[in-house]
Amino acid sequence: MARIWDSFLTERDKQVFEASGHGQRAGFGERPALLVIDVNYNFCGDKPEPILTSIERWPHSCGEDAWTAIPVIRRLLEVGRRKRLPIFYSTNDFRADGFDLGGWSLKAGRINEDVTRAVNGNAIVAEIAPADRDVIVYKKKPSVFHGTPLLDYLISLKVDSIVFAGTTTSGCVRAAVIDAFSYNFRCTIVEDACFDRSIASHAINLCDMNAKYGDVIGSGEAIGYLETVANDLFPQLGSNAPSR
To answer: CA 39 to CA 165: how far, in whole Å?
Structure first.
């Protein structure tokens, strides 16, 4: 089966993956949570438009690829909510004075631009807005596990696996997947529900995550799996779930 990363690999690369055994299918868990990473206006822009247009106003936007993935994410959320699965969102939360930007201020040249916009850039895009039962986790670093209560929530719910969507594939998605893998969660990365500013970065990081940390699959297969999960496995997560 052709994969999105095939055109970026050399013949030697393909032989190495086959000979080394990397990329073995890990399989799904029995108590999954959905994790939607950073699908906010800062990373999507406020409307579908080409990335080079979008980044004129939204420096960190992924442009049109974000708006291609958003309907896919919405379908995943619809199934997850019908099954009453735990759904977590991440987004950023920085002080107005930039004190807590840390390394971002060193590498993101336009991060301190003083721009007034009609919407809060850290708000989750309205098309996939969190519901009352969902949990928003605010973060300052690439991984949503770093310095946040996410792991506590997952342990409390006895989650054994995470289905990932969001952005950027090469940055915050990858960082979260590696941390989740390190905590022994089964990781499923939904290829067409993830996006990046760079096509090459998107493809190669999907390749690398599939080789070592989780299963990269399409949304059709992911939805088919979620449909098989028992209803209401998580009654303790009611409408009063912790959120901000």
So the answer is: 9
